Amino acid sequence: MPPTLPTVGLIFSIASALLALQWAYFSQSTCEAPHQSSWDTWWHPQRMWRAAESLYNHGQGAGAVTNDWNILYHLGGNGPWVEKVVDVVEGGIAVPKGCEVEQVHMMSRHAERYPTRRAGKRMKNLVERMKQSGTVFKGDLEFMNNWDLFWTDEDSIEQLTSTGPFSGTLGSFTTGVRLRTRYHSLLSKARSLHPNIRFWASDSQRVIDTARYFGAGFFGLDWQNTTTLQVIPETADRGGDTLTPGDTCLLYVEDQEEGHDKGYGMLNAFRATYLNATRQRLLKQNPGIEFTDDEVYAMQEMCGFETTVRGTSSWCDVFTREEFLGFEYARDLLHYYRAGPGTKYGAVMGWLWLNATMNLMLEGQESGPLFDYSVHDGDIAPMITALDIISDEQHLPITHIAHSRKWRKSQVSPMGGRTIFELLTCHATPEPRKYVRININDGITAIPGCDQGPGRSCPLTDFVVRTKKRGEELGDFREKCGLGKDAREKITFLHQ
């Protein structure tokens, strides 16, 4: 039995209060496209940013939210959830006319969290060095004279944030409420078919907590009495029967050139192209203290992480827009080459879940209408790669920013990011036909070469052919990952 939610009642009360606040803000305009949030009938945190703009020094100005700039889109996955606005189908998320959603599969990243231990140590060491230097900071760093680190309890590291408008606990709960509203008919159908509905999470505390708060919003506060949260171990012995293939693919873990660490090499190589000028500017403003590339990068990281805790961050304004475009691209390179199209292991790892989902779609209503999985961003990138839905013609360069790229980490898998596969039944012909539609962070995204259905959806028959062909091209997971024939070859636990 999962642990209880001691704070979920408080979260519910806060969410209700924020919902009431929308009426006070309803007459205010929101940002114009492309950054208008689809949450406009919900409390809009960015409005608070405008109200708070006079509270801190804007410095280089990258932290401002304007009609043509939103810092949340340039944090490389280190900040709050944002919707996908690049390369999306026109018409929004409404179900195409004459169609209905029959089945939903959602793979979501854990909600907003504190930094990992590795990143947190980098930030804390920097702040301590600055505090102990005795420097009275000037210029863009003047705020540091009265600034404190945004966590004091080391147990908070890597866990969900629980304060501010972008808190992970609140975000998980409100996402559940929103999707309950969107898929309420499927929830009723699921309960009639399976009195005890299953949903899944990988065995990480922040992932489990995300699933629990989501469950409270989607299934109701009594979710523990009506559903089962199945936690799947993140251990190497799972083989192909896993939600976290990056932990079970042996060669991916051990391959120093093409495996997990490849992304860090690409990030570091590109980082050197834009950070030097920033270091020189900060040194000119404060001659008594010189920063390394690692330290300046940590400052940029703190912009997003502090925002998820406090709702805003003065670190964002230490930098120019161009410098944050560099940071965003560095983060894109990290994930593109670590678990996405830039590593030879990405697609074969992601095909495990894609194949299992395809089989559930073929079973249709008999398998159940709702499937929800909470994982890490390093598990979403392989799935996106296996699906081959966000594809750049050439691998991303490390010598300069590819401004026209499709792979943007902030929109592929921000904190709280979700990719939803909708199985549609459409009645435009005498014989109802089924289609697959992909919703990535509230941006409908067409599958390349398979978008001739309503709303540019993909006919299920074509989706199946495409997925099976993709599997043949990628090869056997066990073989590609250096596992023995006795290792488990596929996912077996995804069923109601």
UniProtKB/TrEMBL annotation:
A GO term for molecular function: acid phosphatase activity
Record's signal peptide: 1-20
InterPro entries from the UniProt entry: His_Pase_clade-2, His_PPase_superfam, Histidine_acid_Pase_euk
One Pfam short name: His_Phos_2
Annotated Gene3D superfamilies: Phosphoglycerate mutase-like (3.40.50.1240)
Keywords (A to Z) from UniProt: Disulfide bond, Glycoprotein, Hydrolase, Signal
Location of the active site: 110, 377
Disulfide links within the chain: 99-426, 303-316, 450-458
Protein name per the record: Phosphoglycerate mutase-like protein
Species of provenance: Corynespora cassiicola Philippines
